[in-house]
Design goal:
This protein has three helices and four strands, in the order H-E-E-H-E-H-E. By secondary structure, the protein is α/β, with parallel strands linked by helices. The protein has a domain of 85 residues: Nucleotidyltransferase, domain 5. Strands 2-1-3-4 form a four-stranded mixed sheet, covered by helices on one side. Strand 3, helix 3 and strand 4 form a beta-alpha-beta unit. The longest helix has 19 residues. The mean pLDDT is 79.
């Protein structure tokens, strides 16, 4: 009778390939994060020869046609990077709230800046309607354009 103890080998999990997988995942997410665009609402901006930049962080207002409406009669208003559009009446109240939050009593010349990202297919009257709200509230509105000339 052979009663000797047999030496069993311990079970091991090979993890050398996990390093490669984690490296590739890290690269993928780093590259994907640099390609992310904060202006997720796609519109065609009008073009201009000269442009200027604003030093303070402005509020971005995007105005475009509803893509589901084939008659192009309904207009959508997006404030900053919000996903849900607002109506023209709610837009005015939201601009009033933003103006009150931005107001600095020590520096009354410092006003809220709103960058208008208007679809190039909007009529001039539709642009004036939006700019008129800003003018009535004393908000400085700037029209965003595309620098490339086509």
């Amino acid at each position: 009778m052979n009663l000797r103890r047999r030496h069993r080998e311990d079970a091991e999990v090979e993890s050398s390939s996990l390093n490669d997988i984690m490296f590739f995942l890290l690269l993928f997410f780093l590259i994907a994060s640099t390609l992310a665009n904060p202006n997720v609402i796609k519109i065609m901006l009008p073009s201009a020869k000269t442009t200027s930049t604003i030093q303070t962080k402005p509020m971005i207002l995007t105005v475009k046609f509803d893509e589901r409406d084939e008659t192009k009669s309904s207009i959508l208003y997006y404030i900053d990077s919000e996903k849900a559009p607002v109506s023209l009446n709610i837009l005015e109240s939201r601009l009033i709230e933003a103006k009150e939050q931005f107001f600095d009593p020590e520096n009354p010349d410092n006003r809220l800046n709103v960058v208008l990202r208007l679809d190039r297919n909007l009529t001039v009257q539709q642009m004036v309607d939006v700019m008129e709200i800003g003018a009535n509230l004393g908000i400085r509105m700037v029209l965003a354009t595309d620098k490339s000339r086509k």
